[in-house]
Amino acid sequence: MKARTKTTEVLLRLPIMGIAGIYGVLYWLAPSQITDVIATTRLEGSVTPWIAFLAPPIVAALVHLVVLGSRTRVQRLPDAVLANLPLLALTAMTARSAPEALWFMIPVLVLSFAACLLLTPIFNAAARRTDIVVSVGTLAVLAVAVASILFSPVTLPTLIGPLGVVTAGIGLMGLLVAIISMYPRLAGMFLVVCVAAVFLEGPPRALPLFDASTYETGTDYPVTDGLIAWLDARGDLQDYRDADRPYPVIVASSEGGGIYAAAHSYLALSAMQGVCPSFAQHLFAAVGVSGGGVGHLLYSASVDGRDSKSRLEPCHPRTDDIDLSPLTTDLLSPVVANLLFVQVAEFLIPGPQLFPDGGDVLAGAIGTMVPTSVVPAEPLRASWKPDTIQPALIFIATDAVSGNRFVISALGASGATNAESFPSGNIVSVHDISTSTAAVASARFPWLTATARLKVSENSYRVLADGGYFENSGADTVIDLVGQIKSLAYQTQNCGDAEYSLNGSDACKCPLIIETRFDAPVEWQGCSRHIFLAYMPISGHNDRLPGYVYEDEPAPPQSYVFDPLSTMLQTREARGLLALDRARSYFGGLDDPSFVQGTGVDFGFFPHQVPIQALKLPLGWKLSENAATA
To answer: Tens digit of pLDDT for each residue in 550-609?
Structure first.
């Protein structure tokens, strides 16, 4: 006999109500990640992504009614409305972000509702054993989906698209909840085992490492030796000697922010390269936080293989377009597919970690952004050599245990004052990680991508999270790096009777001299090296100075639920702004640290900013072509 108790009837309807609730919350919050993806799908003009977007909620609605009919009586109109609430919420989301697509969404909603009404007699005729078929079928679909995603973790989700991945994943989780509602005792005991396993199982798998025997170990340079070797290998160094000008040494930094930060850093550096062909010769290091580091990786791949021995070329108006194809690569679908399918299966299988997490998948997806380049997959140490024009890539992560900055750098200990540095520096390892893995270690923002577990020595590990937790601009690390360069210059100029060996030669005989002005002539004597330090911070535009209140705030937002998260995010931004403000004073000097009198070539501080909020750029891992060109 079919159960007819009120409690059972409500319990059986909870899964579809939960799915509708999730979509309702997404509609209410309107996160830029979702709205931008919907708008992007509309602009692409293809029907296939919309079919992948709408098919899962329709199938979930029909299966829900089948399950309901096998346990109780389906109420024709109320249950048809309830079953289509998720589709209605998706239609409302589309109306907000892509109203042009309603010509497709509304007929689909009407047809789905009509199908639920017409098939009600069939649903009520469902056999008692139908729920078993649905349960087994749901678990089988999950198994097939997980196996398919593990076999093709990047290509398959990308073909489906982020909208289809999200609705399929949420729909499948709704069906899993339906199984729990049908067999609450059995499912409850199993879930207790799964939850217990989460707390009792061992630590997750560590990041994949390169063994020393698999890559060239001679490329391991500390900052001091690396800078001198890099300077001596510059093809246009003689041009500055001949012109009696110091050699510009540029250090760039890029703040975190997912794909929009990656796009900003890549486009800013590429634009400079397009205007000044010799720019890459002078970019010594690039400090990246989260998405900013991914942009640096893309730029490094774009200049890989170019000649580092060319003479100075004058700047000119940019004539070539920047390749935007890496920026429009879909990094979101693989990560979300891993979260909604693979990680759900991981939770349901008690025991040690079996499957790769979202960070591992993101690192693999980054490789598809530049499929012809070896930079993403090569060991980090091998990504920089002093005789190339690729910058030394420095990625900033946060040690989740100590809360301190953690520097992952191709140069030993670069910018790692009062911080640990890997794979060289105060942590010297015979192992290394790939460049893309290093970039993602700096961009692991739970819960979309789990924290990373890095083996730094035989019996020692670090747990790493997004570098923006500590400081989102990268400016603190730049200040430390420049401080190391200044310390080197001081040592080479104040040797006395001692000898200071760098790269096998006495650096005291060829001192490093840092000039404070670029437009003033300098006297190059013998093998001395005169440099001018310049800093290019790449960040969002902020027209307010930290610590100043510009207007009254009679009703600031406040929420018991969201205040902890919003405080963390705002602190992340504030620390970045404060670090940039310190860097500006550090490079501008004491005479005019705030640049009240304007900027000039001698200041050495050349920011590149875009109005992130005004452009409504999404904080996620997918960017439309329109957003990339904005």
So the answer is: 677 778 888 887 788 788 778 877 888 888 888 888 887 655 555 555 566 777 888 888
Q: What's the whole-model pTM score?
A: 0.90
Residues in the chain: 630
**Nearest 5°: CA angle at 500, between 496 and 506?**
105
Q: What is the pLDDT of residues 44-71, one digit of tens each?
A: 666 778 888 999 999 999 999 988 888 8
Residue 329: half-sphere exposure toward Cβ, Cα within 13 Å: 25
**CA 421 from centre of chain:** 21
Whether the ω angle into residue 277 lies within 30 degrees of 0, i.e. cis, is: no
| Residue located via tokens 């003033």 | 520
Torsion of CA 616, 619, 623, 627, to 10 degrees: 20
Closest C-alpha among 60, 77, 75, 66 to residue 23: 60
Question: 3-class DSSP state for residue 125?
Answer: coil
pLDDT score of 444 more than 70: yes
Alpha helices per DSSP H over 183-257 = 184-200, 223-232, 237-242
**8 A C-beta contact, residue 459 and residue 407:** no
Query: Strand (E) positions, 472-557?
Result: 501-502, 505-506, 512-514, 529-540
Angstrom distances, CA of residue 576 to CA of 436, 482, 587, 598, 620: 24, 18, 17, 22, 19
Mean pLDDT for the stretch of residues 29-53: 76
- Distance from chain centroid for Cα 273: 24
First-last CA distance in the chain: 62
